[in-house]
Write a structure and sequence with these properties.
It is a single chain. Helix content is 36%, strand content 29%. The protein is α/β, with parallel strands linked by helices. It has a single domain, classed as Rossmann fold, CATH 3.40.50. A seven-stranded mixed beta sheet has the order 3-2-1-4-5-9-8, sandwiched between helices. Strands 6-7 form a two-stranded antiparallel sheet. The radius of gyration is 16 Å and the shape is globular. The model has no long low-confidence stretch (mean pLDDT 97). Bound molecules: S-adenosylmethionine. The site of S-adenosylmethionine has 19 residues, from helix 1.
Length: 205
């Protein structure tokens, strides 16, 4: 199931990469990444891996603010857009991160882990944990607040994308098995399907 889902996601995101590159980011995303940058600076963190980096807007923001950034994404078109912005970027599935153990001070994952089938999420979180240094910080944002798993029928991407969504208490319990959860924020963004954004700041202990 995992392989079929990521093959379809790769096709969907290759096809929407240029459109996404031209889309402005909403205010809550700008605020959340600034808050995370402030935290990284307070703690003197220097190296950051962005997974599901998309066209590289956030990677470029962190790099422009002095961090050493590495981007990874499933979609070759997205990776090309990252490289065009002067970012080091790799075509890579976040389930199989090809980096040494304890390599990064921080990992940033905005709206990408919502594509992981529910049975595979613990293994993906372990893959992220492995590449983080002890004490390293992990930013994750996903849409949730409802329970859902499957193809999003109203999706405009081709093929339609797979999503997994959790209630607030469910996603907090899952990540707390693997990381120390330091902060949870739910952001209401007036989503018609009843979804809100869930922002989780975690630490590898
Ligand atoms: C909704 S986009 C978000 C992109 C970017 N983080 C942003 O917020 O603009 C989700 C991204 O996750 C990537 N992605 C999905 N599944 C992935 C996987 N298994 N491994 C790596 N990247 C993945 C997609 O290719 C896509 O670029």
């Amino acid at each position: 199931m995992y392989d079929q889902i990521i093959n379809d996601l790769r096709t969907a995101y290759d096809g929407s990469a240029h459109k996404r590159d031209q889309t402005e980011k909403s205010a809550w995303k700008l605020e959340a990444r600034q808050d995370f940058l402030d935290l990284l600076r307070q703690e003197g963190k220097q190296t950051l891996l962005e997974i599901g980096a998309g066209p590289g807007h956030d990677g470029r923001f962190f790099q422009d603010n002095g961090l050493t950034v590495t981007c990874a994404d499933l979609s070759p078109e997205m990776v090309n857009l990252c490289r065009a912005k002067g970012l080091e970027a790799h075509v890579m599935d976040f389930l199989n991160l090809d980096f040494p153990d304890a390599h990064f001070d921080a990992v940033y994952a905005l709206n990408c882990l919502l594509h992981v089938p529910k049975p595979d999420l613990p293994a993906v979180l372990q893959s992220i944990r492995r590449v983080l240094k002890p004490g390293g910080l992990f930013f994750m944002a996903v849409y949730g607040g409802i329970e859902h798993e499957g193809i999003w029928e109203k999706d405009y991407h081709k093929p339609k994308r797979f999503f997994a969504n959790y209630l607030d208490e469910q996603i907090q319990a899952i990540v707390a098995e693997i990381f120390k959860l330091e902060r949870f924020t739910a952001v209401d963004n007036n989503n018609e399907a009843g979804l809100h954004s869930q922002i989780l700041i975690m630490r590898r202990t």
